[in-house]
Amino acid sequence: MPPWLYKLFTGHQYPYVRRLAKFAQPVKHGEDRPEPTKDMIEAKFWEVYPRCSAKVLQEVKAGMIVVFRDLGEYPPGGYQELVDNPEAFLAKTYGKKKIKVNFYHGENFVCTINFKVAGWTEHEGGH
């Protein structure tokens, strides 16, 4: 598992996996639920990650608005090349673009990461 992906799924920026680990703990009535341990988070990651799908979107500027166009969807287990070498995979598959990759656990959003692929520097038309 590449460190970038593990950190994306388990870090504080996107709390989905951490929250699932926290609420999987038993709690007595009236007590606060403790924060999950590193081991609990890791166990929850390995439960969630294999079930996640990925969606690839292109960031496009439309006037003053940024919109995202669907480029592709990958089922759970269907995006290993993307995980292993994201920049090369995205460049080969989609070309020079600003790309957002979203991960979903069923219908639930888990996390996202942006890539400036193949030397992308600005939106078409200089916007």
Short description:
This protein is an alpha+beta fold and 127 residues long.
Structure commentary:
By secondary structure, the chain is an alpha+beta fold. It has one domain (3-126). The chain is built from five helices and four strands. The chain has helices spanning 3-10, 16-23, 38-48, 80-84, 86-94; strands at 52-62, 65-74, 98-105, 108-116. The protein has a four-stranded antiparallel β-sheet. Helix 2 (16-23) packs across helix 3 (38-48). The mean pLDDT is 91.
Number of strands: 4
Query: How many individual helices?
Result: 5
Give the termini distance in whole angstroms. 36 Å
Instruction: Specify the biggest β-sheet.
Output: 4 strands, antiparallel
What is the strand arrangement across the widest sheet?
Answer: 2-1-3-4
Q: How many separate domains make up the residues?
A: 1
Low-confidence stretches: none
Report helical residue fraction. Answer: 25-40%
The overall pLDDT average reads 91
Topology as a string of helices (H) and strands (E): HHHEEHHEE
From the helix content, strand content and strand pairing, which structural class follows?
alpha+beta
Q: In percent terms, what proportion of residues is strand?
A: 25-35%
Outline: elongated
Cα Rg: 17 Å
